[in-house]
């Protein structure tokens, strides 16, 4: 009983004889006893149960056990009166993962801004000494181990003739955007005419399964630092002993930005694989050029996926403050080392090389549909076609499963794009299908580009009752036989899969939810009151 003035108020007691508290206050009391909450309310990484597993992943990009493993490696990092070793490490990882400013981090950790800066510098220096060298750089992995453990069978079949000791590497430059600098010469060196903003370029060297072997640079962004110049500089200066690590006959898979470095790489006895250029005056790649380009893009998608992994650490995806520029290379290397250490490979199937063998076989084929279309001038002749309704006609078109469609496209990107292409053309009532009168097994389709409203593509599909036997599209890569372009995949997906399994009357995507709140200035009623417009015109004339 508790006495208040002259009245006595009953107080409920628990089994231990202590006052019974409400559940919310009881939970706070329990968290405080365990060390989850502190008097100043700061984030507490010293107590193993202070944060949940989800909180660790959201704040640092690592699990609780992974964070502990990294903390155990930074043996030269010392605790101070204001923060512990784990707190110092957490400050850097939270900043890299979330991209928060020093002022916000000071609030979260109940420290001053200059203390946050010192902790970031100390953690960065320690990680670069004790953690990064074990998971990044030419010295952390031998050439034999790299080729044995990080080369996919498909890439080895396509580019190395199944040679087990041949290294296959991806070279790719990524970007880290910077604030505009008041230092005129530095601003000139970091300004990219291609991107139209200030940035620096780290040069990444990756394996075919997405493993990041090394990061060179970062380099400036002006005209003297394109991709070709950067890789020339790396070999001429023997950056990080790259000349010692590389072997002759190693394969370098690059994009078209390295075209000026192809000659010097060939002189060093490296094999260069690059997507083909369209010949001057031509509008489309030849069959051989399109097939060769597809062999490169089949394996090089891991470069963009690896970049996407790195940019999940928001600090590298945002505009970096100028006072961090001297250390931006270290931040990139720390994130890459964390990805190598704790993230699984982008490709886990190291036992199946059937796709590579099939692609090599198809790369030798000629596109007979393209030959027929050009010989009979079917692109310009219109009277030889009859328009058909794809929803109710074309009963002879084969029914195709998603597995079969993936065998046709030899990838999943075209299948993902097919749904969006079909939906866009159905909404615009522009999904025109035509049958060749002389050849009922030849279908012609007119499609608009997803990038430009004024550009149209024409494609032809040859089929029988069981399968699609040939295709040709007028887009840049539409003549290839190794897979097909997204336009052809869209028509095959719609006629062979979606129409048969779901029904043509049903919309592919409910895209109206994206545009219901967006206005379009071209949507004006035909019978509108023009009195206001006339009055404005007369006012201007007066």
TrEMBL record:
Any idea which GO molecular function terms this record carries? zinc ion binding
Instruction: List, alphabetically, the InterPro entries matched.
Output: HARBI1_dom, Znf_SWIM
Q: What is this protein called?
A: SWIM-type domain-containing protein
- The protein's required cofactors: a divalent metal cation
Keywords associated with the record: Metal-binding, Zinc, Zinc-finger
PANTHER family, alphabetized: THAP DOMAIN PROTEIN
The residues covered by the SWIM-type domain are: 457-496
- List the source organism: Mytilus coruscus
Q: Which positions carry the signal peptide feature in this UniProt record?
A: none
